[in-house]
Automatic annotation (TrEMBL):
Pfam families: KBP_C
GO BP annotations, alphabetical order: central nervous system projection neuron axonogenesis; microtubule cytoskeleton organization; neuron projection maintenance
Similarity annotation: Belongs to the KIF-binding protein family.
Region (Disordered): 347-368
tRNA processing is among the record's keywords: no
Protein name, entry field: KIF-binding protein
GO cellular component assignments: cytoskeleton
Bias (Basic and acidic residues) ranges: 347-367
InterPro entries: KBP (IPR022083)
Keyword field: Cytoplasm, Cytoskeleton
Length: 633
């Protein structure tokens, strides 16, 4: 049998070191026309290492046979500074099997990196098969977790999510069992092929092992998300981010963007404490990815210029997440405080205010039970930023305005990058969120005139954009804007009507007020009709069957147009008659469409009921008006 000597091991050490250098360093500079040149060279070295290991002690199908040499000599080069008791099953065979399995692992990763997935899968499968014959020990547990991570990624890429889940959950179990049963810093695979003086330190072994498990948690978060297990996915994502901070092993902007994305999940669940914490951490950590000093900007390379642009973009994306936080907090507060007609319920407001003290006490308890990002270097900065925006529901205009101003500040930041020139869709979405912030704030404002001014701000920011957009390329966005503008004008009209109702009758309104009221009615009707016109065919015909995504908006628009025409104020009987006939026509459309398509009625139950009522009443009103007009003639 072949004898293993130090020269043979030195040759293996050197080849492995070269393979690692080719993979991690030289491959970064490979030419575009030969992008995998270094990795192909690394593969050949790994194959040579594999052949050398197979030749030692005449490896059989069941693994590597034990040399007839005295054990101490046979272990030379395999054991390095690891005690025999720490090895797989206390056997040299286990050590050799683990080393062969490690080469299979590196070959598998190499093939995957060079886009040869079937070959990569085969090598990783060989690695798993070898390791299944061994007991999990400090010598092989790191390799076991790494290979299962890779197979999890591979199967996830094939959309075989449940297979990926199996590999990753077993890796997670391996980690927990090992930490419970042993817990000592395990051997890293790179130490299999290093001279003793080059082996990793105790601290580095701990770091690498914990990082491997962090990757397991990260991949499981993705798997659970794809399986629709959102709560579980969020928990794993949060723990992953926390571990990355603790290990100081993360890319600041990537970490920050992941934390900001996680905040959106918490916001949708009404967990604003956690959402605010994620966003505060994202903002602080993103600041660690410093821009290039201004004095060096003129001489920066193209790569650095792209990097700076990427930083700006991602910070703007974090700002957009802050906007959503503020907007959702205001909207959820409104849901708690509004009465059955959508106005502020003062009794409910007092009730919630009285319970606020208890809520603030519970906030601190909730904070202690929340997974916080407690990095020593950033904790104070994160806490300081959190203090600038509340996570409890605002109960009055002053509190709501404080949340609004935070959101508006981030709107300004986001628009600096996502400008209309180059980012049309993003820019408009930010404007829509800004408009929604004003709408949410207006709910808390008691003064009707000031509420009208807030809605006017919404009109001023959205109407020019709506008129400028090309309908051919931005049809869906224009429809959204048209409908929102129509509803905004409608809200303003309702507010003016509320003021008018304080008068004895509409006849007491002066001509200026009537003109303003009619302008708001007509503007709302105009944008609702523009929305309906966008549904027409090139020949100008409305579709016989409305598509599901526009069914409710289209029927609501018809109902609103009818309502608006019936409310227009005019001293001319002829104009009144024309307006009433237009109102009747639109009410009838809603009724007739729902009669022809009964399933549509469920989408507009309230509007349908009122349309039926008005379709019955308006003819009587029209006939009375005609009679008066006839008698006057």
């Amino acid at each position: 049998m072949a004898s293993v000597n130090s020269e043979q091991w030195r040759a293996i050490y050197e080849k492995f070191s070269n393979a690692q250098n080719l993979t991690d360093v030289k491959s970064l500079n490979d030419p575009r026309n030969d992008p995998f040149r270094s990795k192909y060279q690394a593969r050949e070295l790994l194959r040579e290492i594999y052949c050398s290991l197979k030749s030692f002690d005449n490896v059989s199908d069941r693994g590597l046979e034990i040399s007839e040499q005295p054990q101490e000599e046979a272990v030379d080069g395999l054991r390095q500074d690891v005690s025999t008791e720490a090895l797989c099953g206390d056997s040299c065979e286990g050590m050799r099997v683990a080393k062969l399995a490690a080469v299979e692992y590196y070959l598998g990763v190499n093939h995957i990196d060079t886009e040869e997935l079937p070959a990569g899968q085969e090598h990783l499968g060989n690695c798993i098969s070898m390791l299944e014959k061994c007991t999990v020990t400090s010598f092989n547990v790191s390799l076991i977790i790494h290979v299962r991570n890779q197979l999890g990624i591979l199967w996830a890429g094939y959309d075989e999510t449940e297979k990926a889940q199996d590999f990753l959950e077993v890796a997670e179990s391996n980690y927990h069992h090992y930490m419970k049963d042993d817990g000592s810093p395990p051997i890293d695979m790179t130490d299999y092929f290093c001279a003793e003086e080059n082996m990793l330190t105790h601290q580095e072994r701990v770091r690498r092992f914990e990082l491997a498990y962090t990757h397991t948690m990260y991949y499981l978060a993705q798997v659970y998300k794809n399986l629709g297990q959102t709560e579980r996915a969020a928990t794993y994502c949060h723990s992953t981010l926390q571990r990355q901070l603790k290990l100081n092993q993360y890319n600041p902007m990537e970490w920050a963007l992941n934390a900001a994305t996680l905040s959106q999940y918490y916001i949708t669940k009404g967990r604003y404490l956690e959402g605010r914490h994620c966003l505060s951490a994202a903002t602080v950590i993103s600041g660690l990815a410093a821009d290039i000093p201004s004095e060096a900007a003129a001489q920066e390379s193209e790569i650095e210029s792209e990097r700076r642009e990427t930083l700006r973009q991602k910070r703007s994306e974090i700002a957009r997440c802050w906007i959503k936080y503020c907007l959702n907090l205001l909207q959820d507060a409104r849901k708690l405080l509004e009465d059955n007609i959508g106005e502020l319920d003062s009794d409910r407001q007092d009730e919630l205010r009285n319970s606020r003290r208890r809520a603030e006490e519970e906030e601190e308890k909730g904070r202690k039970s929340t997974l916080l990002f407690d990095s020593d270097d950033t904790f104070e900065s994160i806490a300081s930023l959190e203090e600038k925006v509340q996570c409890l529901f605002p109960l009055d205009f002053t509190e709501a305005r404080a949340v609004f101003l935070v959101g508006q500040n981030y709107v300004t930041q986001a628009k600096e990058y996502f400008q209309m020139d180059g980012y049309v869709t993003d820019h408009i979405e930010i404007l829509q969120d800004h408009s929604a912030l004003f709408k949410a704030l207006a709910f808390f404002e008691e003064d009707v005139e000031r509420r009208c001014k807030m809605h006017k701000r919404r009109v001023d920011m959205l109407e020019p954009i709506c008129n400028e957009l090309n309908a051919r390329y931005y049809l869906m966005i224009r429809r959204q804007l048209m409908f929102e503008l129509a509803e905004t004008y409608n809200d303003m009209m309702d507010l003016k009507l509320a003021l008018a109702n304080r008068q004895d009758d509409t006849q007491s309104l002066d001509s200026h007020t009537i003109k303003k009221f009619n302008h708001l009615c007509s503007s709302s009707a105009k944008f609702f009709e523009m929305f309906l016109d966008s549904l027409r065919s090139p020949e100008g015909k409305m579709p016989e069957v409305l598509e599901e995504e526009v069914l409710r908006p289209a029927l609501v628009a018809r109902f609103r147009v009818a309502r608006l025409h019936s409310r227009l104020i005019s001293s001319s009987p002829t104009v009144q008659l024309d307006n009433l006939n237009k109102a009747l026509e639109n009410y009838k459309y809603v009724v007739q469409y729902c009669e022809a398509h009964p399933e549509a009625g469920a989408a507009v139950e309230i509007e349908l009921e009122l349309s039926k009522e008005m379709a019955g009443l308006l003819p009587l009103k029209i006939n009375r008006l005609k009679a008066r007009m006839g008698s006057n003639n």
